[in-house]
Amino acid sequence: MNHQKVRDLMSDAVVRVRRATPFKEIAHLLLEYDITAVPVVDTDDRPVGVVSEADLLHKMWGRPEGDAGGPVAAPSPAKASAIDAAGLMTSPAVCAREDWSVVDAARVMAQQGIKRLLVVGEDGRLTGVVSRSDLLRVFLRTDQAIRTEIVEEVLVKTLGEAPSALHVDVTHGHVVLSGRLSPRVPVHVLEGLCRAVDGVVAVEFRAVRDADPEGSA
C-alpha cells in the first residue's frame, strides 16, 4: 500500500538548540513555543540528542523536599547538576527518515516508547519533527479517498479484480465490502490489504464467493 510518508505529516518549523545552550534558555524555549522537548544539534545541524521537560525537572528532583512528604522520584545526579543541553539531553536521538511511511514511524515510536521522532534527510541533517498526533492525521482522510484507494489499488492493481467486483462502502473509516469475489482471492488477504489502507478504522466483510467451477454439485 502507498502509505503517507513522514515528510507529508512532519512539522518542518523545528526549534533546536546546541550542546552549549544554557538550562534557562532551554526552559524559556519550551514555554515560549509551547513544546515539551527540543532537539540538540551539532554544528552541521545533525541531531545528537533531545532535551525534554522531564530532563529539566531533574533539577527540581535533586533539591531537598523539606516537609512536603510523599514519595520523591530519584533524580539523575548528572542531569540534576547539568547547566546546559549537553548535560541534560537524552542521547542518542531517535530519528526517522523523510521517506519512512507512517507505519514505520508508528512502529519505532511504539518500540522506543517515545512521543516524537526527529526527522533527518539523506545527509543526516535535521529537517523536521513528527509526533504521535501528526501520525493520527491519517485518520482524517475522507471516506471517498479511502474508497478510491481500495477500489483502484487493492481490487484492481493488487488483486486483479474488476472495479465492480465488490461494492465498497466507507463511513467514518469503517469499510464494508459486499458482493461477489472470485475464488482465487482469499478473504483474509483482501481484509488485510484493506486494513492496511491509511485511514481505515475497521473492515466488515460481506462478500459472497462465486461457486468453485471445479467443485462438486
Main sheet properties: 3 strands, mixed
Percent helix range: 25-40%
| Strand ordering within the main sheet | 3-4-5
Query: What is the count of DSSP helices, taking H or I runs of 4+ residues?
Result: 9
User: In the CATH hierarchy, what is the superfamily of the largest domain?
Assistant: CBS-domain
CATH class of the largest domain: Alpha Beta
**How would you describe the shape?**
elongated
CATH topology of the largest domain: CBS-domain
Task: Give the number of domains.
Answer: 2
Strand content: 15-25%
Query: Stretches where pLDDT falls below 50 for ≥5 residues?
Result: 63-73
Corresponding CATH architecture of the largest domain = Roll
Alpha-carbon distance between the two ends: 38 Å
Radius of gyration from the CA trace?
25 Å
Write up this protein:
The chain has 217 residues and is of the alpha/beta class. It folds into 2 domains: 6-138, CBS-domain, CATH 3.10.580; 141-209, Histidine-containing Protein, Chain: A. The chain has 9 helices and 8 strands. The strands form 3 sheets. Strands 3-4-5 form a 3-stranded mixed β-sheet. The protein has a 3-stranded mixed β-sheet with strand order 6-7-8, with helices on one face. It starts with 5 loop residues before the first helix and ends in an 8-residue tail after the last strand.
Topology (elements, then pairings):
Blueprint: H1 6-9, H2 23-32, E1 37-41, E2 47-52, H3 53-61, H4 77-80, H5 85-88, E3 95-97, H6 102-112, E4 116-120, E5 126-131, H7 132-135, H8 143-158, E6 166-171, E7 174-181, H9 187-195, E8 202-209
